[in-house]
Amino acid sequence: MSDQPTADESEQSPSIIVVGGGPAGLSAALFAAKNGLETTVFDTDETWMHKAHLFNYLGIGSVGGTEFMATARQQVDDLGADRRQGEAVTGVSESDDGFAVETDDDTYDADYVVLATGANRDLASELGCAFTDEEVVDVDVDMETSVAGVYATGAMVRPEEWQAAIAVGDGAAATLNILSSVKGEYYHDFDVPEDATQVFGEAVAE
Ligand SMILES: Cc1cc2nc3c(=O)[nH]c(=O)nc-3n(C[C@H](O)[C@H](O)[C@H](O)COP(=O)(O)OP(=O)(O)OC[C@H]3O[C@@H](n4cnc5c(N)ncnc54)[C@H](O)[C@@H]3O)c2cc1C
Predict the structure, then answer these.
(1) Does 8 reside within a domain?
(2) Ligand 1 in contact with 45 (CB < 6 A)?
(3) What does the DSSP assignment read for 9-71?
(4) CATH number (domain holding residue 164)
(5) pTM of the predicted model, to two decimals?
């Protein structure tokens, strides 16, 4: 299995909050939880995937969008993310040591924030993230916004090209960039067959 990102095991893991639990957000959460970041996902379950049926996701012949999401949620849960289903994020702001993420229930602290709210760009706008001329959140290939430590992924960063496979890639790219930032060098989440038992335990070993 890949090395964990924190150099000192005794230190608390860096924390990441993902806002939105569609394909982009769950992909970001998967890479974060799998690689030792303290990972929380907030989602209100309005993903477009509930309206979709995938025939264009490489490696999968045919799958219903809701079924795809159920598998993705299970995968993220199994890897240790705290998925807060039904808890809406009402605000994100910069704090002295990172970010404060607000819901009606509580305020949560995070070192990094990944926005994955589909076509809703309100939180990015309120945070002061730069937008493009096409009025989508302006990011580079690493998915970081103009606000350091805030990433934007999925439908919110493109006026078109709204595909699950692209959203999943965005989420992965965002978290890999965060992991590289934490580790201080390029981070590669590479596994080999011998890692299967450690990562997935008995289910894969059978
Ligand atoms: C009819 C239809 C058919 C489609 N068919 C296909 C297809 O065949 N193949 C394909 O690849 N794609 C298809 N798509 C597109 C695909 O569904 C999207 O590309 C994909 O869902 C985008 O993922 P995302 O994670 O960016 O956003 P979303 O899937 O929209 O997820 C965003 C999530 O964030 C949550 N959220 C938003 N704001 C907050 C907040 N403040 N707090 C907490 N949670 C919040 C929402 O509830 C939602 O669950 C289709 C879409 C539609 C509408």
Answers:
(1) no
(2) yes
(3) TTSPPPEEEEE--SHHHHHHHHHHHHTT-EEEEEE-S--GGGG-EES-STT-S-EEHHHHHHH
(4) 3.50.50.60
(5) 0.94
